[in-house]
Structure formats: structure tokens, C-alpha cells
Amino acid sequence: MPNKEQPKQPEKKFYDIKVEALVPGILTYRVFAETEEDALKQCEKKTPNGFKPSLSLRRMIKATVYLAGSSVVKLVKNFKV
Predict the structure, then answer these.
(1) What is the DSSP letter of 15?
(2) What is the pTM of this model?
(3) Can you give the pLDDT at residue 47?
(4) What secondary structure letter does DSSP report for 7?
(5) Which residues pair with 66 in a beta bridge?
(6) Could you identify which of 1, 6, 33, 64 might form a hypothetical disulfide with 39, taking C-beta atoms 3.0 to 4.6 angstroms apart as the criterion?
(7) Distance separating alpha carbons of residues 18 and 10, to the nearest angstrom
(8) How many CB atoms lie under 10 A from the CB of residue 19?
(9) Residue 67: how many CB atoms within 10 A of its CB?
(10) Which stretches of the chain drop beneath a pLDDT of 50?
(11) In the 8-state DSSP scheme, what is residue 58?
């Protein structure tokens, strides 16, 4: 009988998500997720880890997803209010 390999499950990673909103500042979240899209869904249910005020950020909501501890952008999503 040939050996059947089980499908490989996606590996979970930590993601940092920075959300620029109508509030003049940047909210920062850290979540543990399998994909960038899953990380965005999880940050809706969590409280932010940090807040950096910035008066120049009065615009639409923009979410940027990074691998935790890096500056490599994995996903950018704009939300209309």
C-alpha cells in the first residue's frame, strides 16, 4: 500500500497590524494567525497593544499587516467609512 501523506496545515505566525483611522493616530495589534487575512479578522476582536498619536492621519481607514518584528509589508487593505 502506498503511503498517503496528510495535507500540510498552514503554519501559524505572529503578525503586527497597524491601523490608521479617522482618529488621528495609529493603533497597533499583535495576533497569532495562519494567514494575513486571518490576522486582520482577529484584530477586530482584540484590544490594541499600542497607540501612536499623529495629527496628519485624518483620512480613510488603512490596515497594514507585517510579520511580527519586521518591517516587510505583507498586506495592505483600505476601508471606506
Answers:
(1) E
(2) 0.50
(3) 82
(4) P
(5) 16, 73
(6) 33
(7) 23
(8) 21
(9) 15
(10) none
(11) -
Residue type (1 letter), 22? L
Own/partner pairs, 41-48, CB within 8 angstroms, 24+ separation: 43/17, 43/19, 48/19
Residues whose CB is less than 8 angstroms from the CB of residue 8 and which lie 6 or more positions away in sequence, other chains included: none
What phi-psi label fits residue 39: left (phi over 0), alpha (psi between -120 and 50 degrees) or beta? alpha
Give how far Cα 72 sits from Cα of 9, 28, 36, 44, Å: 23, 15, 12, 22
| 3-state secondary structure labels for all residues of 19-56 | EECCCCEEEEEEEEECCHHHHHHHHCCCCCCEEEECCC
Give residue for cell 496528510.
6
Copy the grid coordinates of residue 24: 488621528
